[in-house]
């Protein structure tokens, strides 16, 4: 039995409002499926689960604010699910292997094997098989043999315990033991990776944390002045907008925050205001803490534009590309080439991102801004990238982003071309170290090979964190962007 | 086990043997008619009372063994069986105004002091009707109304308390005596010696009653005391001290009366070493490996109850019918005590913190 | 106006206690004082000087050196209707009476099902600072504060020295009073109490807004000195004198931390398992969301108290340590 918990969607997120369940008890969920809609101070997000199994119980009602880490639902493993109907005498038999029994009937060990739900049916996932338990037609499956055992079903109790404890889904592990068996080391490695993947928690005093919650201040945006740079109450008060109540007053009127309390989600204006505050805080911190340097280059887009026209001419309307797709792909590929700009600055050092997750700044209709991630944008073919971008923008504006999309970006692109401007000098999203800006593609007089002509050009800018890189690195990046846009077939 | 040890019962004196003759004389000369040992005419009735008091203790504790074995009562249960003459004889010499401080082997003292069997049994059951409200159990029986200051389960821990009770009586000019029971094991504890010194120094009205049953738990007297003549050692503090046959209830009573009389007369603390023996193990957990069966049997020949009944039968003061009648009365009393205890209410858990301090609200901090 | 200088008259902590004893002995004939050298000698620290002459040897009793014996006798006398005040020379010696204090004084009421309250007061000297080395200098009051069934007091001011004894004697349960040895010579003008001294509440010795210095007994003067130094630096420190170490005044601690959001706990005992640890834990339990810095503790070094002056000073909490701890919390 695994718990689906309120995820931490950012360093500054202490709690979230469960707005809506997208699944119900008894539903089969897969790792990565969106299962609930969560609201934070920044946005409304669809959150995915990290288990595959059957949702057995919802623990939190919609409209409830709960701290990060609070169990929201219980997900039974597929094994548990499979065992249940069998115990209840439901027909799982069709999916048990036909076996030639030895004379004298099956041994106890064999019976036990038979009771074990069978996995890896050819051409279908186990989950799919389980989702149609009433299906009566026998499914051809390989017979279970010791040599053919796979996956977590063969994991021993210690491994299972460790996996549960470390929040590791055995299904996702590739076993390195004999016969593909998942070993203790496999689980421990996975658990360690999982642990380090969590965003670092902002160091803040309990009072600061409480005040931040009360005053709607995003702790991630506040510079701590306490020991080990911990955020203290005064830091929060400084960061808070408007007049701040005297400390005595705050102490007297606010009780201890309860672990779970009713929703205090206000009308949309409040949310917009909260988002404005959050952006204000984050950008203030970025501008204060990050020594930006700015580079700019203007790129001849003739080749790219020609390539785009040719592609779109040959494609159905629904698959046509926008120039933005090329720009984003170029930014992503260049980030792969210049990894010094793709990652995070934390604890006084740079950590390279694992993969290029391109943050795409999306302005929201009601005001405000989010920059969800296009995961592995460097690896997406242009049509895929285009489709993902459309989906991402749509969902961002509908408030249906997934948690990983909100927190995973390794470098962000802001494209204000459609807003008519030519040059963007952006502010980096901490803890990232670079922000790429694209303006509008405009026609300009342009000298090529000594001749003046009118060419479509775009101004690409780079805002980079001088703590992490120097101008030369930034120059290498922009040069790579320009090179790629001039060779669109490489995109 | 030394041969001397085996012969101890035979050497035990049948009558009080004063170790401090002058003081003894003084005490005897001041004997009042009130504390006179019952005359021959009243003797039969009195002996019958002594017998019944001893039998009550014996039968009560036998029932305890049963209940303990059935896991009805728990904790440590230290049985007094074999030592009944001490409690009955000493308490016989006390008035209701006197105070008693006892040990963890105190069922006999409590019953002899007049605490109803029902209240003692209910305490063993841990019920609210117990003489300590169920908070004490077998080792901590209390009854303030009878000036019974408990059941102290720290060997010699009750002795300083007794000195203080006596000091208060003295300072308030009351003629009460505080009687403190303790075992031979207490002689190895500092608190015994501190108290003996203090009581003698301040001439406190304390009766120090040492129940010398020859064992400090499982350690024989010779193995825990360099000098085993306990009365002599007590006398060294400058108090009257006698060694008495603790199996003969009449001898015990006689000695106790004389001591109490001396104490009330203002001659300071008196010490009685009552040579006795417990027939059963130290506690219910004790496998009793440290004693010879022969030694136990030898002492059982001098069972205080047999000793008295034999004497009374020889005098023509007791017949089978009398014994049956007494036994019946006691059986009924104990049956009733068990029944009442079983039906008695248990303390609600909400009251857990009661009696931690006198103000219940402060119990928690 | 006789010009007798009454208003300038200084009283010492020692005299304040003596005056309290005198008042108790005068007002209630059940009260008597008992302990080692309380009579002819006048008390090891001179507290009871002159009382023997005034009240006689029955009520000011010199005892043999037998802590367990005379503390137990005090318990017995209390059971029998007296109101004894037992003096133990130092807290280290009280360990010899620990059996009586824990197994009898603190326990009899409960063990007897409420039949036997023990209205006893035990006074003893505690603490270091006088180069008395490792068997006369420790601060073990925190051990006693661990025990349910007794009240533990630590008068730190002239007023408390003078006025805590009467309510302690009125308490139906055992009360232990810890007098810090370094306080006996402290002198000042003893003012009549504004209100009767109560034994349930801590006292705010100085109001402040930036940090709470929570302490008791012999560390109070150091905490007040630290507060002065901090004030000179613009840090407003509140000084809480716990006074009653059991039961602890949780409300006072919570209220102060709610005002200042930072706390330093100063306790002359060893840090490990100390009363300071208890206070810190209660702050964590009751004031967690008020805390704007980790709770700081200033305790004695974990060493049997050394004789040499330099070493003893280094082992003990000093004003500078308190100031430094406050800075760690505030800066």
TrEMBL record, chain A:
Q: Which portions of the sequence form the region Disordered?
A: 79-142, 239-271
- Please state what the protein is called: Dihydrolipoamide acetyltransferase component of pyruvate dehydrogenase complex
**GO terms under cellular component:** cytoplasm
Query: What taxonomic classification does the UniProt entry list for its organism?
Result: Bacteria, Bacillati, Actinomycetota, Actinomycetes, Kitasatosporales
Cofactors required: (R)-lipoate
Q: Which family does it belong to?
A: Belongs to the 2-oxoacid dehydrogenase family.
One short Pfam family name for this protein? Answer: E3_binding
Q: Which organism is it from?
A: Streptomyces luteolifulvus
Q: What is its EC number?
A: 2.3.1.-
Q: Does the keyword Acyltransferase apply?
A: yes
Automatic annotation (TrEMBL), chain B:
Catalytic activity of the protein = N(6)-[(R)-lipoyl]-L-lysyl-[protein] + pyruvate + H(+) = N(6)-[(R)-S(8)-acetyldihydrolipoyl]-L-lysyl-[protein] + CO2
Q: Name one GO molecular function term.
A: magnesium ion binding
Compositionally biased intervals (Basic residues) = 1-11
Task: Provide the Dehydrogenase E1 component domain boundaries.
Answer: 53-349
Q: Where is the composition biased (Low complexity)?
A: 12-28
Q: Which residues cross the membrane?
A: none
Any idea of its EC number?
Answer: 1.2.4.1
The segments labelled Disordered in the record are 1-41, 341-365
**UniProt cross-references to InterPro entries, sorted A to Z:** DH_E1, PDH_E1_Alpha_Subunit, Pyrv_DH_E1_asu_subgrp-y, THDP-binding
Class of the enzyme per the UniProt entry, highest EC level = oxidoreductase
- Keywords carried by this UniProt record: Oxidoreductase, Pyruvate, Thiamine pyrophosphate
Q: Name one GO biological process term.
A: pyruvate decarboxylation to acetyl-CoA
Q: Where is the composition biased (Polar residues)?
A: 356-365
Q: Cite the Pfam families for this sequence.
A: E1_dh
Q: Which cofactor does it need?
A: thiamine diphosphate
SUBUNIT field: Heterodimer of an alpha and a beta chain.
* Biological role: The pyruvate dehydrogenase complex catalyzes the overall conversion of pyruvate to acetyl-CoA and CO(2).
Q: What name appears for this protein in its UniProt entry?
A: Pyruvate dehydrogenase E1 component subunit alpha
**Classification of source organism:** Bacteria, Bacillati, Actinomycetota, Actinomycetes, Kitasatosporales
Q: What gene is this protein translated from? A: pdhA
UniProtKB/TrEMBL annotation, chain C:
| Protein name according to UniProt | Alpha-ketoacid dehydrogenase subunit beta
Which InterPro entries does the protein's record reference?
THDP-binding, Transketo_C/PFOR_II, Transketolase-like_Pyr-bd, Transketolase_C
GO MF, one annotated term: oxidoreductase activity
Taxonomically, the superkingdom here is: Bacteria
Q: Which UniProt keywords apply?
A: Oxidoreductase, Thiamine pyrophosphate
Q: Which PANTHER family match?
A: PYRUVATE DEHYDROGENASE E1 COMPONENT BETA SUBUNIT, PYRUVATE DEHYDROGENASE E1 COMPONENT SUBUNIT BETA
Cofactors needed by this protein, per the record, are:
thiamine diphosphate
Record's keyword annotation contains ATP-binding: no
The chain positions of domain Transketolase-like pyrimidine-binding read: 11-186
């Amino acid at each position: 039995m695994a718990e689906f918990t309120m995820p931490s969607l950012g360093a500054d997120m202490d709690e979230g409002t469960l707005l809506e369940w997208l699944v119900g008890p008894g539903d089969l969920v897969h790792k990565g499926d969106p299962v609930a809609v969560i609201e934070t101070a920044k946005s409304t997000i669809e959150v995915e689960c990290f288990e595959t199994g059957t949702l057995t119980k919802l623990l939190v009602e919609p409209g409830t604010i709960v701290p990060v880490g609070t169990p929201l639902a219980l997900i039974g493993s597929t094994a548990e699910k499979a065992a249940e109907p069998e115990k209840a005498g439901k027909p799982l038999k069709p999916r048990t292997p036909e076996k030639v029994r030895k004379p004298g009937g099956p041994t106890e060990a064999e019976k036990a094997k038979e009771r074990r739900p069978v996995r890896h049916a050819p051409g279908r996932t186990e989950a799919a098989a389980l989702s149609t338990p009433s299906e009566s037609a026998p499914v051809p499956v390989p017979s279970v043999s010791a040599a053919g055992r796979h996956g977590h079903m063969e994991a021993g109790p210690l491994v299972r315990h460790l996996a549960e404890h470390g929040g590791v889904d055995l299904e996702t592990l590739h076993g390195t033991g004999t016969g593909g068996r998942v070993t203790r080391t496999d689980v421990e490695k996975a658990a360690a990776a999982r642990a380090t993947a969590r965003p670092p928690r902002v160091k803040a005093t309990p009072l600061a944390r409480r005040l931040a919650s009360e005053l709607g201040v995003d702790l991630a945006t506040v510079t701590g002045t306490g020991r080990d740079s911990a955020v203290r109450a005064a830091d929060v008060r400084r960061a808070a907008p408007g007049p701040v109540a005297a400390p005595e007053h705050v102490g007297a009127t606010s009780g201890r925050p309860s672990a779970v309390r009713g929703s205090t989600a206000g009308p949309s204006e409040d949310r917009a205001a909260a988002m404005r505050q959050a952006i204000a805080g984050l950008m203030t911190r970025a501008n204060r803490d990050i020594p930006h340097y700015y580079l700019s280059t203007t790129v001849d887009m003739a080749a790219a534009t020609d390539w785009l026209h040719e592609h779109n001419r040959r494609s159905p309307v629904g698959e046509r590309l926008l120039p933005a797709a090329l720009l984003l792909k170029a930014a992503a590929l260049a980030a792969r080439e210049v990894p010094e700009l793709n990652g995070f600055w934390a604890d006084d050092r740079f950590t390279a991102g694992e993969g290029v997750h391109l943050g795409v700044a999306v302005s929201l209709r009601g005001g405000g801004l989010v920059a969800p991630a296009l995961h592995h944008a460097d690896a997406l073919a242009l049509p895929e990238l285009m489709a993902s971008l459309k989906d991402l923008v749509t969902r961002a504006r509908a408030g249906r982003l997934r948690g990983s999309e909100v927190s995973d970006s390794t470098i962000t692109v802001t494209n204000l071309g459609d807003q008519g401007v030519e040059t963007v000098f952006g502010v980096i999203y901490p803890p990232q170290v670079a922000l790429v800006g694209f303006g509008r593609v405009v026609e300009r007089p342009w000298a090529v090979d000594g001749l003046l002509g009118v060419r479509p050009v775009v101004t690409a800018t780079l805002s980079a964190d001088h703590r992490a890189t120097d101008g030369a690195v930034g120059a290498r990046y922009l040069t790579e962007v320009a090179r790629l846009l001039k060779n669109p077939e490489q995109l | 086990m030394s041969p001397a040890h085996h012969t101890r019962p035979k050497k035990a004196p049948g009558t009080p043997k004063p170790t401090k003759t002058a003081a003894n004389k003084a005490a005897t000369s001041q004997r009042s008619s009130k504390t006179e040992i019952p005359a021959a005419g009243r003797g039969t009735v009195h002996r019958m009372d002594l017998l019944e008091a001893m039998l009550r203790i014996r039968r009560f504790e036998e029932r305890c063994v049963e209940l303990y074995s059935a896991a009805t009562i728990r904790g440590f249960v230290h049985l007094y069986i074999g030592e009944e003459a001490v409690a009955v004889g000493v308490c016989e010499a006390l008035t209701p105004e006197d105070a008693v401080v006892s040990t963890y082997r105190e069922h006999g003292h409590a019953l002899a002091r007049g605490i109803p069997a029902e209240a003692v049994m209910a305490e063993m059951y841990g019920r609210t009707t117990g003489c300590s409200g169920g908070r004490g159990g077998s080792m901590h029986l209390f009854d303030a109304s009878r000036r019974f200051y408990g059941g102290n389960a720290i060997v010699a821990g009750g002795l300083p308390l007794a000195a203080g009770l006596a000091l208060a009586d003295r300072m308030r000019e009351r003629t009460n005596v505080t009687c403190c029971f303790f075992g031979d094991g207490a002689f190895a504890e500092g608190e015994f010696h501190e108290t003996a010194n203090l009581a003698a120094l301040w001439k406190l009205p304390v009766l120090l009653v040492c129940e010398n049953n020859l064992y400090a738990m499982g350690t024989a007297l010779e193995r825990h005391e360099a000098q085993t003549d306990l009365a002599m050692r007590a006398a060294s503090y400058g108090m009257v001290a006698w060694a008495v046959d603790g199996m003969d209830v009449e001898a015990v009573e006689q000695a106790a009366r004389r001591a109490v009389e001396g104490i009330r007369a203002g001659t300071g603390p008196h010490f009685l070493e009552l040579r006795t023996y417990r027939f059963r193990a130290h506690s219910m957990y004790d496998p009793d490996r440290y004693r010879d069966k022969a030694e136990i049997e030898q002492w059982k020949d001098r069972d205080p109850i047999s000793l008295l009944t034999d004497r009374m039968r020889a005098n023509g003061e007791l017949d089978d019918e009398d014994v049956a009648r007494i036994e019946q009365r006691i059986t009924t009393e104990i049956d009733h005590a068990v029944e009442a205890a079983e039906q008695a209410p248990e303390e609600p858990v909400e009251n857990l913190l009661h009696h931690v301090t006198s103000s219940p609200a402060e119990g928690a901090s | 106006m006789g010009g007798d200088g009454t208003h300038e008259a200084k009283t010492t902590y020692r005299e304040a206690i003596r005056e309290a004893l005198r008042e108790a002995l005068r007002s209630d004939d059940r009260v008597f004082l008992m302990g080692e050298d309380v009579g002819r000698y006048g008390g090891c620290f001179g507290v009871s000087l002159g009382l023997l002459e005034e009240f006689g040897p029955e009520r000011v009793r010199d005892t043999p050196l037998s802590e367990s014996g005379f503390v137990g006798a005090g318990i017995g006398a209390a059971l029998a209707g007296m109101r004894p005040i037992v003096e133990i020379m130092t807290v280290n010696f009280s360990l010899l009476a620990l059996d009586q204090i824990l197994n009898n004084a603190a326990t009899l009421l409960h063990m007897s099902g409420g039949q036997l309250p023990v209205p006893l007061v035990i006074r003893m000297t505690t603490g270091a600072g006088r180069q008395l080395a490792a068997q006369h200098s420790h601060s073990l009051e925190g051990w006693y504060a661990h025990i349910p069934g007794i009240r533990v007091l630590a008068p730190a001011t002239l007023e408390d020295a003078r006025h805590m004894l009467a309510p302690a004697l009125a308490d139906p349960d055992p009360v232990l009073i810890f007098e810090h040895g370094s306080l006996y010579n402290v002198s000042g003008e003893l003012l009549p109490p504004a209100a009767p001294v109560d034994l349930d509440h801590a006292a705010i010795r100085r109001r402040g807004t930036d940090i709470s210095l929570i302490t008791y007994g012999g560390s109070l003067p150091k905490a007040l000195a630290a507060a002065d130094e901090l004030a000179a630096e613009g840090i407003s420190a509140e000084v809480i004198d716990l006074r009653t170490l059991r039961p602890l005044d949780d409300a006072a601690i919570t209220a102060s931390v709610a005002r200042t959001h930072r706390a330093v706990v100063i306790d002359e005992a060893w840090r490990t398992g100390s009363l300071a640890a208890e206070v810190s834990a209660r702050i964590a339990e009751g004031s967690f969301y008020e805390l704007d810095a980790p709770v700081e503790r200033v305790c004695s070094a974990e060493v049997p108290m050394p004789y040499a002056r330099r070493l003893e000073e280094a082992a003990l909490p000093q004003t500078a340590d308190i100031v430094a701890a406050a800075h760690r919390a505030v800066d």
